[in-house]
Structure formats: C-alpha cells, structure tokens
Amino acid sequence: MSNLVGVDAAYHEGAARLWPLIAQAQRIISPFHINSDPDAVGSALGLYHLLTALGKTVTVYASDGDFPKITAFLPGAATIVRYTGGTLPEADLVMALDSSDTGRLGKLHAENANRFATGPTLMIDHHVTNARFGVAPDGSDANFIDSTAAATAEILYLLARAWELPISPEAATCLLAGIYGDTLGLQTTSTSPRVVRVVADLLAAGADHTGVVNNFYRSRPFATVKVWGATLEQAAWCGGVVWSQITPEMLAAANSSEGESGGVINFLTGTRDARATVLLHRGPGEWRAGLRTLVEAVDVAAIAEKFGGGGHRKAAGCRIVGDEAERDAFLQEVDRLAGEQIAAAAG
Ligand SMILES: [Mn+2]
Questions:
Q1: Are 256 and 314 found together in one domain?
Q2: In which domain, by residue range, is 40 found?
Q3: What is the CATH number of the domain that holds 147?
Q4: Which of 165, 188, 216 is the last residue of a domain?
Q5: DSSP letters along 303-346, please?
Q6: What are the tens digits of pLDDT across the range 35-90?
Q7: Distance from the CA of 151 to the center of ligand 1, in angstroms?
Q8: How much distance in Å is there from the Cα of 293 to the middle of ligand 1?
Q9: Does 234 lie in the same domain as 198?
Q10: How far is the CA of 97 from the centre of ligand 1 (A)?
Q11: How far is the CA of 183 from the centre of ligand 1 (A)?
Q12: Is the pTM here over 0.70, yes or no?
C-alpha cells in the first residue's frame, strides 16, 4: 500500500479530460496573475518543472511584470518572463493557474484576448468564483476547479499524481511554496487533512522545506523591521479593538516602500483580548484599512462591507475617506459592530 495521499475519482476524471490538451502541446505558456502571490508563482513554476521534465517547452509569464521577492529563490524563478505588453509568442497551449477570471491576467490577457478565447486554454484553480475561461479547441470545457483545495499548488500535485508524473525535488519545492503561501504555513482554516498529507508527500519528494520557511517567514528587509517597530510603537486600543497605522512619513523614516510593510498586521492580530485588529495605511485624503480577528463570533468581512469593502470572515479590508476624525469614527464603529456580533453570538 502506498504511503502517498489518495487521489479521488474527480481528480482522475479531470486529469483524463485535460491530459490530451497537454499531450498534444510542445510549446506551453503559463501566465500567473497580477499582484501575484506564492501560490500563483509556485504553481506556475511547479508546472514548469513537471512538464519540462517531459521535454516540453514551458514559459512562465508574470502578467504585470513582477512577482514577490520572497519567491525569487524558487527553482526556475530566473526563467520567469516579465510581461510588459504586446503579443505573446506562438504556443500550442496556454495554461492559466490560480487565476479566477481573465481580469486577473491584466493586459497580458487584454492584449492577447483572441488567443485565450480560441484556446486551447487550460484552467486549474481553487477559487470558488472562478469564471471557467479554460476552453479546448473544439469549444469544450478545459477547466479543473476544486474550491475545497487550500491552494492551486495542492490541486496541481494531485493532478500530477493522476497523470503519473514524477515529482522532482524542484517541482516539490515550488508546490510546497504555493501551499505554504496560501495557508500561511498550514495555519489557515483551509488547512485540511488532505493538504497536510500533500505536504508530507512533497517533503518525501525532496521539497526544500527550510528554504520555503526561511524565505517566507524568517527573512525580511531591515527597512521592514524598522516599519514594524514604528507600527508596534503606535499600537493602541479603541475599546476592544487594537489598531495602528502606517503613514508615508513612517515609511520614509525607515527607507521603506509600502510593499515591504506587510505582515505586521498578522503579528498585531495575536494581541490577547482584542476583539478585532485594524491596520490603517495612510493615502492621499484616505485610509486603507485592513481588518483581522481571531474571535469566533466576529465577522470582519461583514464590518468592512458596511464601509464599501469586503473580504473573508477573519480578514477583510475597506477604504475610509477623510483624515484623523474619520479614522477615529471608523475605529469606534468597528469596535461597536464587533461588540454587537459577540453579543449576538452569546444570545
Ligand atoms: Mn491560490
């Protein structure tokens, strides 16, 4: 009996349906979405390793020309083409992973819309909202969507198993990065028994666990350390809400860019006895608010929606137009609404 995770019938069906498109393709283009994350990059590079091992030519595109610095260590990252515009080169197949709709591919899609429309375009994704734009040359469906998967990389691993592809250490590292990216290292509520088993398989296949953990969770620029320090210094209570802010002045003092300041909100979210956490980024005439909570009864998406934003139950965001007065009124309202939710849950 195999020690590997079980691959269920839906995967065998999807794998059988999609394989002919891959089998007939020699030149494959795999674009990942704009504002990419480790799952987008790791899945595309995982695909690159799985299929180049079969002698195929796979070219991975960054649709907005960029990808997270923390993914630059991944095997194959140096081959990523930074798309800046224009017509994509000839290819036999486009494989889009982790992109819920064509808009996620930005102008790479807009400037090559006909290519995507006529196919073959193959879609593999875990977003429940996927628009299913994968299409085979005969017009039939070329999508494989599993919204129960924690990451697109998890899906790609299970499909690779159904396709009986060898999983190299390089492929395993990229897929592990995708899963750790979307589950914050197996910490999110999407962390299922299956994805943990997939991670075990990837480690057994030789994935560089230390590389992923060090690059994702233990490595940050000095400027980010300084921004975190200033942000934590300003942390304060508004009723039961812990909040702080990041202003252009704080970023300038630390020689940082906003792109490097992420992550401190997850640290603040662990503040004991907070009913919710708010981190405000100052922009011209407005605040961009990130909301988090660890409290079961609190739904920060519902709170953010009252301010025109949205997100997930435990992580959401919105924009607040105005200055300090509007910021403070917003914080008081978040505290009040979270308190209401807690009271309602208590019955
Ligand atoms: Mn994803």
A1: yes
A2: 9-216
A3: 3.90.1640.10
A4: 216
A5: HHHTTT-EE-SSEEEEEEESSHHHHHHHHHHHHHHHHHHHHHHH
A6: 899 999 999 999 999 999 999 999 999 999 999 999 999 999 999 999 999 999 99
A7: 5
A8: 21
A9: no
A10: 9
A11: 9
A12: yes
